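Working notes for the structural subgroup meeting. M.R. asked for a predicted model of this chain before we commit to crystallization trials. I am recording the input and output together here so anyone reviewing the notebook later can reproduce the run.

Input as submitted:
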Amino acid sequence: LEDVRPAPLAADDFSAATAHYGHYELAYVPASRDESVAVLRAFLAAVAERVGEEVFDFAWSPSGARDLAERTHGLTAARFPVRYDGGTARTLRERLDEASARHGYTGDLEVRLGMAGRPLGTDEPSFTRVMVLERAPGEEASADPHTEIALLCLTDGPPTVFVRETAMGEDEALDFVERVEDLAMAALLRGDEPPAEAAGSARSADSGEATDSGEATDSAGPADSGARIGGGPGGPTV
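Returned structure, recorded in token form:
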């Protein structure tokens, strides 16, 4: 908690007129936990694009945390920060599982660290500005007062994105949800993208091989080079 990095999500001043959340169901129902995490990662990647920040903490509220908070009459937190840094879906799943296994923390800890919730508009952005909830059928799901964007992952239906009007207008929200769907489908079809450094190394290797090939062709002499370019009947064409 002492190293929390909230997403710098811009939002207008809160008022009764802008308290409404628009909710948008994604056009896809995950068939497994891995697919659900892929959708969650796509949602966070879209948030990262919007805020221009590759590393931030979001509020994670699994069913177990909500149930424990209810059984302890609110003594434990129903959501806790998890870091997103653009890593793979596997890395994100491991972080979610690790956070869930720790059963969160007592709500009093936020008070002692000066992170307890304050009236809207009177404090710096909280890690609960971006929230992800995981719920089973019939379970209650509610965001924190400071939550501007949330993803609700259901075990029996399509994920739903909630966007408060203070964060985005309707057109912006629709574009945001469409971006989430595009990223999710790309991840499900192609899997996690390779790291940029690895992709760059592969391109460099290919370039080196092409250069070596060109040098070998030049050293073969004009006659051999002409034979390769012509290709003869049925030969390769460009």
